[in-house]
């Protein structure tokens, strides 16, 4: 499989949970400003893969990662890499909506508040300084993020209400807004619609397509129709291996591998 | 019909037991209130005892208990909460975490008189603090530590891991995640443990008996190296070393003050817990 230039280059990625070899030599390249879907049967390693891209597997005990994930010419597993910085630049939205038990505003304002605002230094050229957001800036940022996540009209009158008063689909879009507020480059979605009804799912899918203009999007899904609807490229994982990776159209209409064809046509998985 | 009779019998048995518990509590509390209420007055709460505990009040014992409890909390709460954070957030799976868990669970079962002896041997004599408020407070802190740790650990572990992941995925550090999410969300549980341990500390006699409490003292403790009076020990001394017919008013009065104090603390634990539960729901 050839390695294209992309936003995320994965080279020979191996993951073990204790003795269990969960990802085996995965190599491929995720293109910039496109949606890449990861599909495959349960336990195939698709969630494990996506959690490697922002190093969320670091917090899993007995998890060992080998290989390279290169983002902006830098392997994020290099020892000198700051994990916290990686996670800020590579946002993640989880399977189950997980807003903080705080107000809608506070959910989105949390990350900008802890990271502060980065801007060019007035004294030294080329240097960046971090300062606190002013109240007004924070309000603007929260509003912009929620608008970007297509949630503003539904919540603008109740920004100080608990995030738990929202519906599941709204909560998930709030989680997306929360991730957008730190201005990441890459967005990872780990089965973001599996807990949502079809209408809420459609809204998230529209949002994903809209977001790819500005972000590189990777989405894990066990719903093949969803991959076919939203993704530009699709990767099929099976038993910890990357079986096939290509244009979504090709994967669904002319798969090269027998395994892919069996999975797509529902004879396996 | 046999099955229905069985059903009835067990229902009555359960209800009977519940009533025994309720009645026992009502009788105990009622007895103390009825016998003690007559003694309670402003004088009783604010004056030193006079004429062999027949006049005046138990002011030094109330103050001593408050000092003691305050000091115990200053020692035990930070150590207990930080240990709980360490065990549940940092070292949950390795041998040290497991060891800590076993130690804490077993410490909770050690009789408090054993702690008293430990305090006497270690703090009073070996460390050389003498009979003092400090030695008693440290000894009591050991007694309540397992309580604080267990309650805090359970509260911290009840915070869903999805919230920790959400915070970490936003680029928060582990400490920021703990500080901004885990601790605030688990605060009601931690506070409950703290307040329950306060009421435990206020009522314990054995650990302080051997390390610093005194029966007769006509000054308040001047500093933490001074001896002190405390309500549970005063009650014990009055009932074993003075004639009952002379000091019975003082005994029941002291028991009532102690009871009210402990009940008030437990009530406030419940109120605080419910308030925070309202605030953080998931």
Description:
The complex is a heterodimer of chains A (269) and B (282). With 269 residues, chain A is α/β, with parallel strands linked by helices. Helices cover 34% and strands 27% of the residues of chain A. Chain A has a single domain (8-264), classed as Rossmann fold. Chain A has a six-stranded mixed beta sheet, sandwiched between helices. Chain A has a four-stranded antiparallel beta sheet with strand order 2-1-4-5, covered by helices on one side. Chain A is globular. In chain A, 45% of the residues are buried. Mean pLDDT of chain A is 89; it is low at 1-5. In chain B, strand 1 (49-50) and strand 2 form a beta hairpin. The mean pLDDT of chain B is 89. The longest helix of chain B is centred in the last third of the chain and has 36 residues, at 244-279. With 282 residues, chain B is mainly α. Chain B starts with a helix and ends with a helix. Chain B has helices at 2-36, 42-46, 59-90, 95-107, 112-126, 133-157, 161-169, 174-203, 206-209, 231-241, 244-279, and strands at residues 49-50, 55-56. The chains are: A alpha/beta (269), B mainly alpha (282). The A-B interface holds A 54, 56, 59, 61-62, 84-85, 87-89, 91-92, 94, 96, 98-101, 110-111, 114-115, 162, 164, 175, 178-179, 182 and B 92-93, 160, 162-173, 176, 180-181, 185, 279-282.
Question: What keyword list fits this structure?
Answer:
heterodimer; A: 269 residues; alpha/beta; Rossmann fold; four-stranded antiparallel sheet; 10 helices; disordered N terminus; B: 282 residues; mainly alpha; MetI-like fold; two-stranded antiparallel ribbon; 11 helices; 2 strands; 76% helix; 1% strand
Summarize the structure.
Chain A has 269 residues and is of the alpha/beta class.
CATH class of chain A: Alpha Beta
What is the average per-residue confidence, as pLDDT of chain B, rounded to a whole number? Answer: 89
Percent of residues in helices of chain B comes to: over 70%
Give the DSSP E fraction of chain A (strand runs of 2 or more residues). 25-35%
Rg over alpha carbons of chain B = 23 Å
Extract low-pLDDT stretches of chain A: 1-5
- Rg of chain A, alpha carbons: 19 Å
Runs of chain B in which pLDDT lies below 50 for 5 or more consecutive residues are none
């Amino acid at each position: 499989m050839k390695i294209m230039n992309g936003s995320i280059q994965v080279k020979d990625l191996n993951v073990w949970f204790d003795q269990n070899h969960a990802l085996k030599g995965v190599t491929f390249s995720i293109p910039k400003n496109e949606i890449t879907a990861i599909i495959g049967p349960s336990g195939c390693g698709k969630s494990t893969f996506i959690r490697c891209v922002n190093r969320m597997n670091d917090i899993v005990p007995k998890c060992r990662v080998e290989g390279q994930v290169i983002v902006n010419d830098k392997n994020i597993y290099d020892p000198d890499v700051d994990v916290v910085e990686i996670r800020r630049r590579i946002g993640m939205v989880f399977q189950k909506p997980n807003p903080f038990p705080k107000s809608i505003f506070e959910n989105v304002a949390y990350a900008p508040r802890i990271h502060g605002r980065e801007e060019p230094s007035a004294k030294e050229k080329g240097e960046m300084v971090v300062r606190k957001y002013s109240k007004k800036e924070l309000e603007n940022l929260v509003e912009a993020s929620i608008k970007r996540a297509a949630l503003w009209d539904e919540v603008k009158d109740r920004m100080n209400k608990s995030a738990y008063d929202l519906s599941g689909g709204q909560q998930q879009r709030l989680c997306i807004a929360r991730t957008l507020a730190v201005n990441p480059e890459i967005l990872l979605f780990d089965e973001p619609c599996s807990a949502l009804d079809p209408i809420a799912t459609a809204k998230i899918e529209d949002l994903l397509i809209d977001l790819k203009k500005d972000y590189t999007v990777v989405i894990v899904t066990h719903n093949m129709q969803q991959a076919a609807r939203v993704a530009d490229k699709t990767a099929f994982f099976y038993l910890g291996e990357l079986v096939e990776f290509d244009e979504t159209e090709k994967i669904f209409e002319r798969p090269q591998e027998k395994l892919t064809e069996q999975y797509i046509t529902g004879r396996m998985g | 019909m046999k099955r229905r009779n069985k059903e009835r019998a067990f229902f009555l048995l359960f209800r009977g037991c519940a009533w025994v518990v309720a009645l026992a509590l009502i009788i105990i509390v009622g007895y103390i209130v009825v016998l003690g209420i007559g003694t309670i007055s402003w004088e009783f709460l604010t004056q030193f005892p006079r004429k062999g505990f027949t006049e005046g009040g138990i002011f030094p014992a109330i103050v001593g208990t408050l000092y003691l409890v305050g000091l115990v909390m200053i020692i035990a709460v930070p150590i207990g909460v930080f240990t709980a954070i360490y065990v549940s957030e940092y070292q949950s799976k390795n041998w040290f975490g497991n060891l800590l868990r076993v130690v804490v669970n077993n410490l909770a079962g050690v009789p408090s008189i054993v702690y008293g002896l430990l305090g006497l041997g270690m703090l009073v004599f070996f460390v050389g603090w003498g009979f003092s408020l400090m030695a008693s407070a440290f000894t009591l802190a050991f007694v309540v530590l397992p309580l604080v740790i267990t309650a805090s650990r359970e509260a911290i572990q009840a915070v869903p891991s999805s919230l920790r992941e959400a915070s970490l995925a936003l680029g928060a550090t582990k400490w920021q995640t703990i500080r901004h999410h885990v601790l605030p969300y688990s605060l009601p549980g931690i506070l409950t443990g703290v307040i329950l341990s306060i009421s435990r500390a206020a009522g314990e006699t054995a650990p302080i008996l051997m390390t610093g409490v005194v029966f007769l003292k006509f000054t308040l403790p001047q500093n933490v190296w001074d001896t002190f009076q405390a309500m549970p020990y005063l009650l014990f001394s009055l009932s074993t070393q003075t004639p009952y017919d002379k000091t019975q008013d003082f005994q029941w009065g002291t028991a009532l003050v102690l009871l009210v104090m402990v009940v008030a603390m437990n009530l406030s634990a419940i109120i605080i817990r419910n308030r925070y539960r309202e605030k953080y729901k998931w």
